[in-house]
Amino acid sequence: MMETLRRYEKPYGVEAAFIYELLDEEYWAPNFEAYMGLVKLKKDDQGHWELGSKKAAYKAAKDVIQDGAKP
Questions:
Q1: pLDDT in tens, 38-60
Q2: Backbone angles phi, psi at 23, to 5 degrees
Q3: For residue 23, what are the β-bridge partners?
Q4: Which of 3, 6, 13, 50 counts the highest number of beta carbons within 10 A?
């Protein structure tokens, strides 16, 4: 999807795109909203939420964004 938006940048004047969920919201489980993020959340030993591992989609988004930033 991000590659498609990049192709539409010039012909259609696309200036921005927004990532809907940066982090999973696992407290909404089992709803699909719980797993839509680019980074997982997990609970620490005291039951507080903290950042977990980055998903494959995180790397894909990062790569597209970095490629677009190159002169």
A1: 999 999 999 999 999 999 999 98
A2: -120, 145
A3: 39
A4: 6
Question: Is the full-model pTM beyond 0.85?
Answer: no
C-alpha dist (Å) from residue 68 to 14, 19, 37:
13, 16, 22
DSSP string, the chain: -HHHHHHHHHHH-------S-SB--GGGTTSGGGG-SSEEEEE-TTS-EEEEEEPHHHHHHHHHHHHHH--
Cα first-last separation, the chain: 22
Identify which of 58, 63, 18 has the alpha carbon closest to the alpha carbon of residue 37: 58
